[in-house]
């Protein structure tokens, strides 16, 4: 059986490899895969059981993609995909993450210099070989070297951005859960802790019959190579070069195993110390009395924390940065949760050049989440191509006012996502800006300015009374574009002082502000807002990711403005506007 998750993984891989093959993400065939992926992601139908006609009827799926999906379902693989994998191995594909190395440039470098992987590329840089190639120069060499350094790509332990790992892990877990032998399955490790990048995926299964589970796991279509195969433990490498470890344990030991394999290692070591203090041992099988060999707790994580005299520590906090001490004192932060969220305040429609759903559809999608308020924030006029003119904004305001009548339970706010210029100025003029109900201002350009200049421009933007929040503070794309450099103490202090909210953007390839920045914000008493930055009705799910990232920054419900009732939220926004 081929699951929907497997189909989506295959299509995503095809999209990535076709970008190299065609030389551009804008190529017709690449966009065809993009459309198919988006169409399938928003369709609730069971793709794996569809006929060819039904497949083509899915929005975005063309004939040729439908044929490939059919081939995968019928034969377990796609010939085209296998050919592309041979041509572009994972370590080569990984190089596409480096800014400045587009597909065409990369292929030329491979062609001329035989560069196949990061080591080769660094050797070529060291030998100053890139500067002699067409379209490249000494400047490009420096830029590439800096990007490799700042993205932490060097070394053999390359990490995979969560945006690639999470869908794969969820798809594997869903598949394993469907096996009759499996009682429970979860991904654990750094992914469960919601780290932004992960070394490998760790999957845990509760079952009394590990054999068939192992068999299924090692023969999944996404498996390229089995690198370890035991009775209860296997490791595989996926076709995209990612390692996945599987461990099967007895149902009665599931909690202990989940705790152990979720980590972090330092959190585990701290817990084990607490166990030793009581003359107990803690390992992946349970919490045990050394003297009597009696098992004190093993079945659930909660029972183990309880026995150790600790509050339950959510996975997002398990990094041994003070959470064990606070759990012992009964003093863990009251973390924000998805169910606390009452609105979304960074939200695009197709009025933005990069928006892909209509105002009507976007508002309906928010209403389906039972939000109490929603700010529509299409791009301001300064963003070339994507921005909206004053005239367009005023027309949209009318539409929103009319639409409001259909949604008595959700307050619609008219906002805009402004662009922070080099000097910290933003789009339009103050009078026009104050005509909006709410704005979020973000950096969309000049990522290479130095720390002083970046800090100054963000401080200037926050001093603007019409700027309600700062969007995706660092501007990073995880593993692809390093964030801007900021004096975070200065920024967070000013955010608190001016009543400017700091956004926690839930886009899985951003997760921005970073947990480190957020924690500095918490220290300064900053008010946060958790947003999805949705450009399509599919993207509202990002709220869950934003909340998890907020938790990694130790954010409590009370610090998040969009957990507040409408009146209190609006009063906070209006206070800054004077
Ligand atoms: P990663 O894969 O580098 O993103 O990070 P993790 O945290 O997923 O680490 P991984 O995959 O090496 O191991 C998964 C979990 O297993 C880890 O978080 C804690 C546990 N673990 C692994 N090795 C040790 C160890 O030597 N001691 C203890 N106490 N726990 C370990
Ligand atoms: Ca791991
Ligand atoms: Ca592992
Ligand atoms: Zn946006």
Number of DSSP strands? 17
- Distance between termini? 61 Å
CATH topology name of the largest domain: TIM Barrel
What is the second-level CATH architecture of the largest domain?
Alpha-Beta Barrel
CATH class assignment of the largest domain: Alpha Beta
- Overall tally of domains: 5
Determine the CATH superfamily of the largest domain: Metal-dependent hydrolases
Report mean pLDDT, rounded to a whole number. 94
Largest sheet geometry? 7 strands, parallel
Total helices: the number is 24
User: Helicity range of the residues?
Assistant: 40-55%
For the largest sheet, list the strands in their spatial order: 11-12-13-14-15-16-17
Structural class: alpha/beta
Q: Which small-molecule ligands are present, each listed once? A: 2'-deoxyguanosine-5'-triphosphate, calcium ion, zinc ion
Instruction: Show unreliable segments.
Output: none
Bulk shape: globular
Taking all Cα atoms into account, the compactness measure Rg is 25 Å
How much of the residues is beta strand, in percent? 5-15%
């Amino acid at each position: 059986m081929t699951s929907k998750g497997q189909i989506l993984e295959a299509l995503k891989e095809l999209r990535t490899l076709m970008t190299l093959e065609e030389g551009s993400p804008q190529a017709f065939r690449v966009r065809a895969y993009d459309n198919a992926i988006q169409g399938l992601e928003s369709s609730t139908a069971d793709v794996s059981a569809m006929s060819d006609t039904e497949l083509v009827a899915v929005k975005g799926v063309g004939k040729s993609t439908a044929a490939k999906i059919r081939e995968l379902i019928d034969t377990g693989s796609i010939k085209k995909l296998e050919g592309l994998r041979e041509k572009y191995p994972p370590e080569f594909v990984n190089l596409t993450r480096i800014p400045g190395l587009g597909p065409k440039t990369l292929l030329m470098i491979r062609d001329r210099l035989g560069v196949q992987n990061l080591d080769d590329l660094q050797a070529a840089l060291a030998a100053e070989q890139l500067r002699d190639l067409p379209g490249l120069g000494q400047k490009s060499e420096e830029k590439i070297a800096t990007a490799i350094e700042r993205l932490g790509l060097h070394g053999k332990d390359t990490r995979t951005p969560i945006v690639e790992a999470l869908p794969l892990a969820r798809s594997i877990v869903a598949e394993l859960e469907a096996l009759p032998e499996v009682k429970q399955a979860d991904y654990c490790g750094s992914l469960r802790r919601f780290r932004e990048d992960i070394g490998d995926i760790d999957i845990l299964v509760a079952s009394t019959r590990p054999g068939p589970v192992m068999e299924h796991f090692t023969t999944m279509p996404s498996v390229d190579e089995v690198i370890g195969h035991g009775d209860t433990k296997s490791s595989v490498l996926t076709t995209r070069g990612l390692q996945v470890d599987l461990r099967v344990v007895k149902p009665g030991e599931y909690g202990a195993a989940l705790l152990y394999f979720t980590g972090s290692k330092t959190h585990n070591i701290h817990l084990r110390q607490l166990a030793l203090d009581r003359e107990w041992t803690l390992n992946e099988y349970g919490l045990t009395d050394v003297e009597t060999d009696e098992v004190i707790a093993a079945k659930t994580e909660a029972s183990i924390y309880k026995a150790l005299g600790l509050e339950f520590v959510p996975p997002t906090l398990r990094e041994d940065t003070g959470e064990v001490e606070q759990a012992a004192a009964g003093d863990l932060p009251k973390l924000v949760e998805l169910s606390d969220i009452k609105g979304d305040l960074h939200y695009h429609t197709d009025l933005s050049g990069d928006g892909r759903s209509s105002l009507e559809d976007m508002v309906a999608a928010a209403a389906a989440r039972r939000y109490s308020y929603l700010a529509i924030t299409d791009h301001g006029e300064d963003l070339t191509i994507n921005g909206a003119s004053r005239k367009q904004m005023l027309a949209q305001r009318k539409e929103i006012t009319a639409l409001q009548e259909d949604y008595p339970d959700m307050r619609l706010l008219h906002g805009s996502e402004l662009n922070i210029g080099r000097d910290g100025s933003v789009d339009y003029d103050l009078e026009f800006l104050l005509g909006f109900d709410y704005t979020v201002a973000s950096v969309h350009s000049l990522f290479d300015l130095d720390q002083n200049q970046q800090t100054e421009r963000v401080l200037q933007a926050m001093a603007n009374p019409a700027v309600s929040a700062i969007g995706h503070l660092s501007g990073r794309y995880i593993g692809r574009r390093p964030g801007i450099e900021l004096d975070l103490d200065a920024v967070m202090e000013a955010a608190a002082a001016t009543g400017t909210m700091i956004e926690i953007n839930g886009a899985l390839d951003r997760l921005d502000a970073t947990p480190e920045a957020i924690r500095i914000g918490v220290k300064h008493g900053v008010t946060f807002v958790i947003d999805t930055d949705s450009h399509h009705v599919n993207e509202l799910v990002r709220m869950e990711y934003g909340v998890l990232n907020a938790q990694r920054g130790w954010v409590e419900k009370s610090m998040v403005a969009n957990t507040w009732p409408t009146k209190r939220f609006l009063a906070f926004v209006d206070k800054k506007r004077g």
